[in-house]
Write a structure and sequence with these properties.
With 177 residues, this protein is of the alpha+beta class. It folds into two domains: 74 residues, no CATH class; 94 residues, Lipocalin (Beta Barrel), CATH 2.40.128.120. The protein has two helices and twelve strands. The strands form three sheets. An eight-stranded antiparallel beta barrel has the order 5-6-7-8-9-10-11-12. The protein has a two-stranded antiparallel sheet with strand order 1-2. A hairpin with a 2-residue loop joins strand 9 and strand 10. It is elongated and about 90 Å long.
Length: 177
């Protein structure tokens, strides 16, 4: 029994006879010592068969690519962080908790928080997928001081690392209030 890929049927050349096989557009073909294969009668049918095989390969690759993208698309779901969050930072001076307010407009963020002295500070940032980043610049006795926060949002929690200018970095976490 042989498999005819161009007609998607199984053909037995011995049982159906050589004339019946040829009427289906195929010619018996001996390959090797004991194998019998069927090949198309003319070049145009062979080219058509090759094109069909190439299309099957292309469709298979496209399906694999689509399946590979599904986790990324699910991860890039819309995240909205608008509202008040309780943020905890781990610094060399110990743990510090503060309230941070986010206003989100698409991927753009406006962030408002208070310094340890109670001054209100506003910064800007972005959120792309579930990746969040914002920067706050504060005025201190020694001049301007910038902190850049980077992290990941997962539901009603987020976490990441804050880069504190030339003073290193610190870990942070936040929960939606």
């Amino acid at each position: 029994m042989l498999f005819n890929t161009s007609r998607l049927s199984i053909i037995d050349p011995v049982a159906s006879g050589s004339k019946n096989v040829q009427s289906q557009g195929l010619t018996p073909w001996k390959h090797g010592r004991k194998r019998r294969c069927l090949r198309p009668n003319n070049e145009s049918e062979m080219q058509q068969s090759k094109k069909e095989e190439e299309m099957k390969k292309i469709h298979s690759l496209f399906a694999i690519l689509c399946l590979a993208l599904v986790p990324f698309l699910l991860n890039a779901q819309d995240v909205n962080v608008t509202g008040d969050w309780e943020m905890t930072t781990q610094s060399p001076r110990g743990e510090r908790t503060s309230t941070v307010h986010f206003e989100q407009d698409g991927e753009k963020l406006t962030v408002t928080t208070q310094t340890m002295r109670g001054d209100e500070v506003t910064g800007e940032g972005t959120i792309v997928g579930n990746k969040i980043e914002w920067t706050i610049t504060m005025s201190t006795q020694r001049g301007e001081f910038t902190i850049t926060y980077e992290g990941t949002v997962e539901g009603d929690t987020m976490s990441g690392e804050a880069q504190m200018g030339d003073f290193g970095s610190m870990e942070w976490t936040a929960k939606r209030k």
